[in-house]
């Protein structure tokens, strides 16, 4: 290139450089070799080497010689690393990036080189200082946004390992990786999932919900995304379990169940199927729930979990379900499992929400029975209704919300539209 530093100028600088470090003199054509050998000769002479390289860097930068400037900058940081002078490394990174008219491509290569030293630092203090320096000099620079994002993720991991989960979450939330044009889609999704995980860890469910919307689930249709897909739905299940959104949880488990890798593993397929069945039953009745539960019922793979298939059939037929008989038949299976059918965590009373889900399960039985009664009765006395629902008469009043009561007689008027339609 015509604007590169002249061969004679570079020879003069490198002649002096080689004299200082007792290297045989090399012409400008052999500068890469000289730079490669320089670190081994710089022991005890780091400051002299950096001064010489800064002088040469000024010439190459002024001449817009991107290639030479890049090699000089990476050599400077490599010298500091090879001599284990971490303070000098951080100082020179700051000095170089503040130079007027610094070439972006050269700075990028230097930052990339320095980033490789983060995991090679001798102690945590040096590591944190280097990360802080690199994050400072990359702030607001689009051309090194990926490097800054990776450094931020490393810093968040350090904070989390130190027990500072809230601080780790706040640090990682600084990144808006969905706007990074140079970052690959897979890495973006990984970052967003990590943001979701940390928000859940600090129990910030609202922010988790907001962040989750940044991921388009169509991405998981691409090959090689199974691991990310399963991680995403596991986080969404955890989020919606806190919210008590049973229908959403059912959809999440159904998405997991439909994953080819899950269907290829019979044990994982049966486990996912069990969750789909239970959450389809737990979901409040509406048109969407009714459609979903009937589609689940038609799945041929339910033959592999016969007890759950029988349970699901109870909720898809217009017959009264006797709660005591249901408990006698299925309670042990649902709560404790069996040798052929391990229990899920859904009704585990030792876990958070297990007892509540069992109560909701009983309510779904009552609601199902009321809908069945609506098909056969136009009115019914409270005592008879309580008998059919296997409830105390006082409780049956509160359970029923869609009819009209008068003198202990319930009139079922347009119950299909009024009862549990929310």
Quick overview:
The protein is an all-alpha fold and 422 residues long. The chain has helices spanning 7-20, 31-41, 46-62, 66-82, 86-97, 104-115, 124-138, 145-161, 165-172, 185-201, 205-212, 226-243, 246-257, 260-264, 266-282, 287-297, 306-314, 323-336, 354-376, 382-389, 393-399, 415-418, and strands at 379-381, 404-406, 409-411. Helix 7 runs antiparallel to helix 8 and helix 10 (185-201) runs parallel beside helix 12 (226-243).
Walkthrough of the structure:
The protein is mainly α and about 425 residues long. It is about 65% helix and about 0% strand. Helix 9 packs antiparallel against helix 10 (about 185-200). It is elongated. The model is unreliable at about 1-5, about 20-30 and about 410-420 (pLDDT under 50).
What composes the largest sheet? 3 strands, antiparallel
The SS-based structural class is mainly alpha
Roughly how much helix do the residues carry, as a percent range?
A: 55-70%
Low-confidence stretches: 1-7, 19-31, 411-422
Please give the alpha-carbon distance between the first and last residues: 72 Å
Specify the number of helices. Answer: 22
Name the overall outline. elongated
Quick one: how many beta strands?
Answer: 3
InterPro entries: PCI_dom, PSMD12-CSN4-like_N, PSMD12/CSN4, WH-like_DNA-bd_sf
GO cellular component, one term: proteasome regulatory particle, lid subcomplex
Protein name: PSMD12
Pfam family, one: PCI
């Amino acid at each position: 290139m015509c604007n590169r530093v002249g061969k004679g100028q570079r020879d003069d600088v490198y002649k002096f450089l080689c004299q200082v470090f007792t290297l045989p003199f090399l012409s400008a054509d052999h500068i890469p070799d000289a730079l490669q050998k320089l670190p081994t000769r710089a022991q005890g002479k780091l400051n002299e080497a950096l001064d010489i390289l800064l002088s040469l860097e000024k010439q190459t930068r002024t001449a817009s010689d991107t290639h030479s400037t890049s090699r000089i900058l990476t050599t400077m940081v490599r010298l500091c690393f090879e001599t284990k002078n971490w303070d000098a490394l951080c100082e020179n990174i700051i000095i170089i990036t503040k130079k007027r008219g610094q070439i972006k491509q050269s700075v990028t290569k230097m930052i990339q080189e320095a980033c490789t030293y983060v995991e090679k630092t001798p102690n945590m203090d040096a590591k944190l200082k280097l990360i802080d320096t690199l994050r400072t000099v990359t702030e607001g620079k689009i051309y090194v946004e990926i490097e800054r994002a990776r450094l931020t993720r490393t810093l968040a991991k350090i904070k989390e390992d130190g027990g500072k989960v809230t601080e780790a979450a706040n640090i990682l939330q600084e990144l808006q990786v969905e706007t990074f044009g140079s970052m690959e889609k897979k890495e973006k999704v990984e970052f967003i999932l990590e943001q979701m995980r940390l928000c859940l860890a600090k129990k910030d469910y609202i922010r988790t919900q907001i962040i989750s919307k940044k991921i388009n689930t169509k991405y998981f249709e691409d090959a090689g995304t199974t691991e990310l897909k399963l991680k995403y739905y596991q986080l969404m299940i955890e989020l919606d379990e806190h919210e008590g959104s049973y229908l959403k949880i059912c959809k999440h488990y159904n998405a997991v169940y439909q994953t080819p890798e899950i269907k290829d593993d019979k044990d994982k397929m049966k486990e996912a199927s069990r969750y789909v069945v239970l959450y389809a039953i737990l979901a409040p009745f509406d048109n969407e729930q009714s459609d979903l539960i009937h589609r689940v019922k038609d799945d041929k793979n339910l033959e592999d979990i016969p007890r759950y298939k029988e349970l699901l059939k109870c909720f898809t037929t217009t017959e009264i379900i006797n709660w005591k008989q249901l408990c006698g038949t299925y309670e042990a299976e649902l709560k404790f499992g069996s040798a052929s059918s391990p229990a899920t965590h859904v009704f585990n009373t030792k876990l958070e929400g297990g007892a509540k889900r069992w109560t909701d399960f009983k309510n779904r039985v009552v609601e199902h029975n009321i809908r069945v009664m609506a098909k056969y009765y136009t009115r019914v006395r409270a005592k008879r209704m309580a008998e059919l629902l296997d409830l105390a008469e006082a409780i049956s009043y509160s359970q029923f919300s869609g009819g009209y009561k008068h003198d202990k007689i319930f009139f079922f008027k347009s119950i299909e539209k009024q009862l549990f339609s929310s």
